[in-house]
Design brief:
The structure is a homodimer. Chain A is mainly alpha-helical. The first copy, chain A, has a single domain, classed as dinb family like domain (Four Helix Bundle (Hemerythrin (Met), subunit A), Up-down Bundle). Chain A has 7 helices and 3 strands. A two-stranded antiparallel ribbon of chain A has the order 2-3. In chain A, a hairpin with a 3-residue loop joins strand 2 and strand 3. In chain A, helix 3 runs antiparallel to helix 7 and helix 4 packs parallel to helix 5. Chain A is globular. Chain A starts with a strand and ends in an 11-residue tail after the last helix. The model of chain A has no long low-confidence stretch (mean pLDDT 93).
Chain lengths: 157, 157
C-alpha cells in the first residue's frame, strides 16, 4: 500500500453505480430486435455484452466476499428479453451494493485469484469490472449511432 | 472524505498509464488514412478522439496543479500525422506522471472547476479522464473490427 489515498470505497461504489445508470439507459435506447441481433464487424450483439456484464459485477463481488475461486462463478444470469435484461440489471444494483460494503479496506489491497484465473489485487479486479462496462457500453454507443439512434448523455448520472 | 480507502494515488496513476499503453497500441493498429478518415454513423474519426484525449489528461492535470480555470485550457496539441500523434502521446506520458505526483492527498478530495465548467472533486475529474479514454478507445476497437483489423489485447498492459 502506498502513501496518498486517492478515493474511498464509498466514492468508488458511487462512481460505479453512476456508470451503471448510463449503461442502463444505453440498454433502454436499443430497440429489442437490434439489442439481440445488430452487430458490426463480426462483434457480439449488445445484449451479449450486457449479459457478460450482468455475470461479472455482483457475481464476482460475491465470490470475492466469500473467498470462492470457482472457475464457473455463480449461477448464470441469462435474460432472454430486453425487459428481463433491465430487471436483472436492477437486481444486480442491489447485489453490488450489498456485497461491496462487506469489503474491508485491507481486502481492497489483498490479491485474489478471481475465477481461479485473474490473480490481481481486489481493487484492480473491481476497476476492471467498471472499465469493462465502460468499454462495452461505448461499443453499444457506436451500434446506436450506426442505427441512427442518439445514445444517452454520458454526464447525466 | 469517507472511511475505507479504496486505492492510492500511485495505484491510480499506474492504472491510468496501463490504459494509455493499450490506447497507444490501438492508435498503432490503425492505417494512417483510416485513422484520419474512417467513421461509423457520423461519428468522428479515431484521430479526432485521440486528439481530444491528448488535450485533456496532461493539460488538465497541469491546470489542476496550477489552479487555473482557464476556459481554453493550455496550448492546443494538434498533431497532423499518425507519427506525430504517437510522439505527442509519449510526451504526455511524462507530462501526466510529473503533474500527477504534485497532487497531495487533500487535493484529490478538493472541488475544482475544470475549464470553468466541470465543478467536481479532483478525484472525479481524474476518473473522468480515464473513463473518457476507455470510452473512445472502445469506439476505436469497433472501427478496427469494421475495417477487418484485430484490436490489441485489453489485458496485455
Amino acid at each position: 500500500m502506498n502513501t496518498k489515498n486517492f478515493m474511498s470505497g464509498e466514492q468508488l461504489l458511487a462512481h460505479w453505480q453512476g456508470h451503471r445508470k448510463v449503461t442502463r439507459r444505453t440498454i433502454e435506447a436499443f430497440p429489442e430486435q437490434e439489442l439481440y441481433q445488430f452487430s458490426i464487424g463480426g462483434m457480439r450483439p449488445f445484449s451479449e455484452m450486457v449479459i457478460e456484464l450482468l455475470n461479472i459485477g455482483g457475481q464476482a463481488l460475491k465470490m470475492i466476499v466469500e473467498n470462492s475461486t470457482d472457475k464457473n462463478g455463480g449461477e448464470e444470469i441469462q435474460p432472454t428479453t430486453k425487459l428481463e435484461i433491465l430487471a436483472a440489471w436492477d437486481e444486480q444494483t442491489d447485489v453490488i451494493n450489498s456485497y461491496f460494503v462487506s469489503l474491508s479496506e485491507e481486502r481492497f489491497q489483498e490479491t485474489f485469484n478471481l475465477y481461479g484465473e485473474y490473480n490481481f489485487p481486489i481493487y484492480q479486479n473491481i476497476l476492471y469490472f467498471i472499465d469493462n462496462e465502460i468499454h462495452h457500453r461505448a461499443q453499444g454507443f457506436v451500434y446506436l449511432r450506426a442505427l441512427g439512434i442518439a445514445p444517452p448523455f454520458f454526464w447525466e448520472l
